[in-house]
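Below: protein 1.
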Amino acid sequence: MEFRAETRVDFVLWMENNVSRNILTRLNDPADVVRVAAVSRFWYQFVATNEISKQLCLRKFPQLSIIARVTEPDENDVECSNSSWDTLKREHSVYASLLEDTEKSNFCPISNCIRYAVSASSTNHYLARRDIYGSSIPPFWSSIGHSDPNAPETLIYKLIADLCVITEIQIQPLKGKPIWCSKYVRFRLGHPKSLRDKRDLLHWSREQPADHKFIWTYTSQEFPMRQENCLQNFKLPEPVLCVGGYLQIELLGRTLKCDLDDLFYIWSVFNTSLS
């Protein structure tokens, strides 16, 4: 009776480096990156050295390309090592964890992820009194009147976290007749240009535009708004990772003119959905 030993080949060792890297970067399940790195010490070194988890993360969330350096707090060592291998290990750990945490099965939907309003290009103070709506109503806003029906308005909000995955944004025109709604809406996600700008925003006047203090890493297409008194959902083509935690809502075009002053206005209530 004859037995033949089964021949097994480690493709990472057998194939050329770029071929193995190409295979691993085609993984569909981000959790597989962690499993691959756990196969052996050599595979872990291959995954970390070739930045497989980082490449998969950037492919899923291109907004992460703005990150220049990854740090990880260590209770025993305040300053992280800057050696090449320690940097690669740290980046693998962070990007692999981010991939796992942003899987749809792990998402925890939140109905309202706006923390507070940062600024508006204009505000009608008479119409924007929040005390008449109560604390349970989402933030209400009204523009000042404008003679040009194409004059845009921009609103900037701080989200509940500096790292958010946004799937859709909801806008509701003010209840009543007629409907004071913009024709189109566009969304931007991003972060302050510098730490100084971020500190300035803590004391920023909401009546003063703050667009110049931000870098917008994502810009959506223009969505048409229905001229209806209902909560309107604007689903992004794919989930977007907001690094920095700031949302800009750009309202484009005005539909109605006020009979009292012959000017165009926009009134809306805002809410965003996070998952």
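Below: protein 2.
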Amino acid sequence: MTQKHQLARTLSGRHINMIALGGTIGTGLFLGAGGSIQKAGPAILLVYIITGFFVFAMMRALGELLLSDHDQTTFIGFIKKYLGPRAGFVMGWTYWIGWIIIAMAELTAIGQYMQFWLPGTPAWLWELIFLGLLYTMNIVAVKAFGEAEFWFALIKIVAIIAMILTGIIMVVGHVRTSVGVTQLSTLWSHGLVADHGRQLLTTFQMAFFAFLGVEFVGIAASETQNPIKTIPKSINSIIIRILIFYVGALLAIMVIQPWTDYSADHSPFVQVFSNIGISTAAGIINFVILTAAASSLNSALFTTGRMLFSLSPKKSYLAQVNRRWIPLRAITASTILVALAIGLNYVFPEDAFSLVTSTASATFIGIYVALLVTHLKYRRSADFKQGEQHFKMPWAPVSNYLTIAFMLGIFVILLCSPATMGTTIFAIVWFIVLTVLSILRVKNN
């Protein structure tokens, strides 16, 4: 690979670890956990553990692929290599478009979160400011992006650890609140499953979407200093992070306050801290959620720029890096497209963005399944049999088939749920259209 087409490798292990960690903690935990608790009750803990296990299995498959060929700039390159150019085309552009849409939705959310403190200011102004700042970080240096993501992730971690420590202290001290004495039995005293389990299956999709973006470490991997050391360490620690940050936080939430008292419309973090007498809870959690949205937008700019760089023909305008080995043109083009959200907010209501975002999320299941099939193909190839093997996926191929079945099961749940049926059908149409375009592309070439 020539220097003109080569990405920088300036991200350290510290950056990659935080990027991987930030990818598993999003607004789904801070905002969406209330709805999950209401639908599943304490059984939501088991839902997150099961979902986390299969997400971890998918990441192990990704990790083995990443370390098999360091010249691939994104994991989509492996899909193209082992499943063919048409599959690479479909999944590559799906991933790029999906992250563009997510970025637009996160940008819209940032404007709304800022109005919590400054309701008199226009949302588009804050959207423009944040987009400009994060774009600048992404084009100055890869290390600047890494530093920003490090601190964004750290803020989220501090908030979650504060919740867990609060729960431990209150249980040990039997602290009395407005809802009674805090004790471990609060977790199961109102039952272990909500609504006799009628909505339990639907919470799997909510847990899955909470982990959306965990594969982002696969994009950052191409720019780490020592991938053989940092990638295995980051991926192996995912299972620990799931247990501590998701299961630990949800456990603390349901111990401090009975799970039956939570509202799906408000952050459970805000509800807990408000009920124990912290009057500034809403402001603090709003800051954390703002940070989570900014982190997602920051990652989206990084990802979409690298994806567009990777998808563009080698000699094209967008497939070039600057003197700092950053795909400046591809990042700029993606950012301009994301910036359309600022104008579109005047035309479309907020629900339109939520609808499109859920459509993009449904397509990620297709990408993850393709990634697992790619790993199966790799295991049968000469590259695996003759090459140096690093970080082998445990129990393959059985673990591949089980994880694929789990992912397809979530897709069926999405398709059968009235709230997500329309967006899932739209995602299917999306794949069909891109497949037709890939066929036409091959014929024209």
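Residues 142-172 form the longest helix (31 residues).
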